[in-house]
Design brief:
A five-stranded parallel beta sheet has the order 2-1-3-4-5, sandwiched between helices. The chain is globular, with a radius of gyration of 14 Å. By secondary structure, it is an alpha/beta fold. The chain has a single domain, classed as 3-Layer(aba) Sandwich (Rossmann fold). Strand 3 (67-73), helix 4 and strand 4 (93-97) form a beta-alpha-beta unit. It has five helices and five strands. The structure holds 1,3,4-trihydroxy-5-OXO-cyclohexanecarboxylic acid.
């Protein structure tokens, strides 16, 4: 079975309550359910952490899987550690943002993560996760 990691970073546990006008009303559990329903034949490893070192460990672990989708939250904008962890894993890697980071504050327009991934999805809400997993499947020739 194809195994894909879907990793969620700092503060994404608060989805649903946190700025719903920006991030939508779905909780992280809702997004997980959406993905499991959309991809019943994929072994999804869906995780969230507020700890940068733990996230680095998740990325290293994902290196042994078929692909990785990551919403790094605010780490997007400054975590060189996460960049380096992603750079070191040789699987399809997609960066996802619920909001359109390019239409927001200046500091959100720059991602230190993007150079280490294959593609970036921003502003599609939870649908962005679905698109990202679908693209990983395309990359590995599953669909
Ligand atoms: C986010 C965008 C980031 O700038 C922010 O810090 C987040 C969520 C998004 O999904 O739109 O926590 O990654």
């Amino acid at each position: 079975m194809t195994r894909i990691f879907v990793l969620n970073g700092v503060n994404l546990c608060s989805l649903g309550q946190r700025r719903p006008e920006v991030y939508g009303t779905l909780t992280l559990n809702n997004i997980e359910t959406l993905l499991r329903d959309a991809f019943p034949d994929v072994d999804l490893e869906f995780r969230q952490t507020d700890y940068e070192g733990e996230m680095v460990g998740f990325v290293q672990e994902a290196g042994g899987s078929d692909g990785l989708v990551i919403n790094p939250g605010a780490w997007t904008h400054y975590s060189y550690a996460l960049h380096d962890a992603l750079e070191a894993v040789d699987i399809p890697k997609i960066e996802v943002h619920l909001s359109n980071v390019h239409a927001r504050e200046e500091w959100r327009r720059h991602s230190v993560i993007s150079p280490a991934v294959d593609a970036v999805v921003a502003g599609m809400g939870a649908e962005g996760y679905v698109a990202a997993v679908r693209y990983v499947l395309t990359r590995i020739g599953e669909h």
